[in-house]
Amino acid sequence: MDHEQLIPPTPSDEDYRAEAGAQEAFAVDEDQGKVFTNDDPLELFSEWLTLAKKHEPNDANAMSLATVDSVGMPDVRIVLLKDLDDGFIFYTNATSAKGEELAANPLAALCFHWKTIRRQVRVRGLTEAVSNTENDAYFASRSRGSQIGAWASQQSKPMSDDTILKTRVEDYESIYDGRDVPRPEFWRGYRLIPSSIEFWVNRPYRLHDRLLFQNDGDGWTQTILYP
Q1: What's the rounded Cα separation, in Å, for the pair 174 and 163?
Q2: For the chain, which has fewer Cβ within 10 Å, the N-terminal or C-terminal residue?
Q3: Are the C-beta atoms of residues 208 and 217 closer than 8 Å to each other?
Q4: Can you give the pTM of this predicted structure?
């Protein structure tokens, strides 16, 4: 796979001044076609994610998850979207930094950026715990190594020696040898229920398209934003 062809760089000002660069920029623009094809933002997101999966070389479901700590300092990290219903579902260790931050302040934000299709989606909302039925079903679908890893890793906690984790993995492999690995109580899923979803499309000369959906409790409203 030729990633140089697959992921063209965003044109610079010099590119726009050069005829060939301008032609390439507008060619990408024309390839976008009609992008805001649905008045339901979750359905529109699903359409965009499906398109991204056809073009992104790795992890089209990767998203930045932003939370805040106890003093209001923001944290951000990449996690994977695992399901989409009336919210965005991801799984993690509830005793990790993000788990503890979400327990103290369930407000969070997500950002998806797909370089290959030059699109971005930003999401803000309130997180809630998914059901134990959902937790158990997803944990059971994971590889055995990942299940053991969930028990062995004390995520985000200090570790004095990197051999400790290997030893803990071996210990839990021994504990669950010959039987199914149960889900740790501290390993669970979260659903971010969106209050706003913004869709962004790269356009020539930084004149990007932005469409903001906001839910005030009575349904979704749409607002076109300046780039």
Answers
A1: 17
A2: N
A3: no
A4: 0.88
